[in-house]
Amino acid sequence: MSGRLVHIGSAVVDHVYRIDALPAPGTEKTASSYAQVAGGGFNMMVAASRTRMKVVFGGQLGSGPNGDFLRAALATEGIETLTPPSPAMDSGNCVAMISSDAERTFVSWPGAESVLSLDMMAPVAVAPGDWVFTSGYTLSYKGSRDVLADWIEALPAQTSFVFDPTPIISDIPRPILARVLARATWLSCNVTEAVEIAGQGDVEALAARLLADHCRHAAGVVIRSAAKGCHIRLADGTTRTVAGFKVDAIDTNGAGDTHIGAFVSALSRGAHPFEAARYANAAAAISVTRHGGSSAPNDHEIQEFLSRDGCSVTAPSRKQEA
Fold first, then answer.
1. Where does the record place a coiled coil (predicted)?
2. What CATH architecture is 5-23+32-314?
3. Is the distance from CB of 144 to CB of 114 less than 8 angstroms?
4. What's the whole-number mean pLDDT along residues 165-171?
5. What burial class does residue 180 get, using C-beta atoms within 10 Å of its C-beta: 0-12 exposed, 13-18 middle, 19+ buried?
């Protein structure tokens, strides 16, 4: 198995402030550091690209300084942008406040990434073997969700589609969410998002209901539980909770994006989903020991990390695949 990751999501400029704790209402804090970085969907794309998957971006970037910044960041990572800049607006931004306990709080302002049309997406051609990804952010925007849902439903049946609902899942209209879930080959979400979709329950019950009631054509679902690892249920009913790795986290921003990008990359190279999950857990564990949302490790770093634990993840040989 091989193919590109075609990312149809949103990339934004992050303004990252590091503070000891969130300020109380009506008060002010002085940040210990500040950085302007590429964020949003950029983090997931970087994770896949650094783990040996060809990545292209089919979302919308703006025509102002934010869009220019993002195009340059994508080019630096070897990620081609397929669509022309929006003639009407710049890309959006997000303020990320990272506290001393490594947790993060966000305030975002949508821009060009929140508006899509079929004409804008015309340059995005999906080839056999490609993997298509989108997140809940683009489906939450009034100016992009209907077009994107139509485009996703029109994908060839053999095209693998991966969906991450993200923390803004409650902003996605339920009919749109239902359509996208029904087309998903893989759903990757955290526990809170799984509950939003499928109701209360433990991870095993949630995963079962997600497949039975919402992602009926999926190969499987992944429910991420941060440092605890992730729980996977496959379409044939096979399940496994894949343990995470104990590390000293300094910044959890982008950990979920890193997990999804590494997971898809491993799957595209033929790894079994349980092996791909272990690989993704390692990638996310490494990323939280580094500052920045786009702190995903490369394949060599992940394999070295796993080898210390007595296990590495590689694609099957041709003989094994036969």
1. none
2. 3-Layer(aba) Sandwich (3.40)
3. yes
4. 95
5. buried
